[in-house]
Amino acid sequence: MGKSVYTSNSHNTEKSGNTSDPNWVSQQLESNLASYWLGLGRLTKGSLHVSDELSWEDSGGPYFNRVVDAHLSREVVDDRIDEIKQTFTARGAAITWLLGPSATPPDLGKYLSRQGFSYQESWAGMAHSLSGLETPPAVPDGITVREVQDQFTCRDWLTVVGRSFRLPRQARRVLHRSVLATTRSGVDNEWTHYIVYLNDKPAAASTLFVQDGVGGIYLVSTLPEMRGSGLGSYATWLALRRAQSIGCTLAVLQSTPQARSVYRRLGFGHYCDIDVYRYETPAPTWKRVARSGLRRLRRSFRNANGRTEPGVRFEPELMAERQQNPSHIH
Predict the structure, then answer these.
(1) How far is CA 107 from CA 74, 85, 103, in A?
(2) Strands 250-255 and 118-129
(3) Is residue 2 a contact partner of residue 196, using CB atoms and an 8 Å limit?
(4) Would you call the peptide bond into 257 cis, given omega within 30 degrees of 0 as the criterion?
(5) Residue 132: is it exposed, middle or buried by C-beta count within 10 angstroms (0-12/13-18/19+)?
(6) By three-state DSSP, how is residue 9 classified?
(7) CA 237 to CA 301: how far, in whole Å?
(8) Contact predicate 241/211, CB 8 Å
(9) Measured torsion, CA atoms of residues 17, 23, 26, 28, in degrees rounded to the nearest 10
(10) Neighbours of 58 (CB within 10 A)
(11) Quick one: which of 98, 55, 102 has its CA closest to 271?
């Protein structure tokens, strides 16, 4: 198993800035989010593309491809969107485009929609000034915490994150490679992955990514059958405490609407919104034919039995469902 949780670290990463300035906080939130995804791509040996106009990451597979920073003029915006689409269409991969408040043009979402991107949801950009930290949230008895340091703790972390976000197998492999890469010697101490065990069984998880003195909290997750017991809040608090202990003055995260109240109770405030757009590459002909055949098979089954048997799920249907990359993973 991994090392115990509260390890000392004298490295001070404090960044100057006014945590009471909403604009500055929003800038740090966007910057950390972009660095997180580009860092993830670097760990998984993906292809990174960083310029003054666009920053994006190509994982090399169908999952975790992200445009994370865009500052485009109206004269080139359509051409750049089309170039991104062509890059991923060529190999049948989807792409997610994250739009923060600094993205330009300000109505970039309209350009994306016109070119076939679909709006998915908005994340609340939330931040916590680490000048004061609340006491840890109440959790059930039988809690232990470990950092990911080896194959065993990585497996447990991935079990929680994978099930919580309903990640398909290939997406889990990408995360597995990235997390293991952070445990190797010589890797900068930017990443900390926590697992919360309940009665020696993995139950909740979180990741802290530190960049320029700002602690970004990602992949907060709890096994479905263990939700509602405060374990996700505790996993978040662990990341907050770690960030504070190494000199960060600000912690940031992105929240779905369902989780905002949880983070507010931990002391986070809502500073901006991150809009999520997604482009699904058209499926190859053979996949469209297979899906059509599946629909005919289901209709035949229904007609022969008068109804579909309760609980019956066809494996191709399950695979199609699992291969949808959840836009809410962050």
Answers:
(1) 10, 19, 9
(2) antiparallel
(3) no
(4) no
(5) exposed
(6) coil
(7) 50
(8) no
(9) -30
(10) 19
(11) 102
pLDDT in tens, the chain (330 residues): 333 232 223 333 344 456 779 999 999 999 999 999 999 888 888 899 999 999 999 988 888 899 999 999 999 999 999 999 999 998 889 999 999 999 999 999 999 999 999 999 999 999 999 988 878 889 889 999 999 999 999 999 999 999 999 999 989 998 999 999 988 755 567 899 999 999 999 999 999 999 999 999 999 999 999 999 999 999 999 999 999 999 999 999 999 998 999 999 999 999 999 999 999 987 555 554 555 676 677 677 666 665 443 333 333 333 333 344 444 565
What architecture is domain 132-248?
3-Layer(aba) Sandwich (3.40)
Q: Which of the 8 DSSP states describes residue 4? A: B
3-state secondary structure 147-192: ECCCHHHHHHHHHHHHHHCCCCHHHHHHHHHHHHHHCCCCCCCCEE
Please report the beta strands in the chain, taking only residues with DSSP state E, as ranges in sequence order.
Answer: 47-50, 54-58, 66-70, 95-99, 118-129, 143-147, 191-198, 201-211, 214-222, 250-255, 269-279
* Phi/psi at 110 (5° precision): -65, -40
Domain with CATH 3.40.630.30 in the chain: 132-248
**CB neighbours of residue 172 within 10 Å:** 17
| C-alpha span between 170 and 220 (Å, rounded) | 20
**Which residue type, as a one-letter code, is found at position 114?**
R
How far, in Å, CA of 18 to CA of 50, rounded?
Answer: 27
Picking from 306, 307, 248, the residue whose alpha carbon sits closest to that of residue 130 is 248
- CB of 40 closer than 8 Å to CB of 64: yes
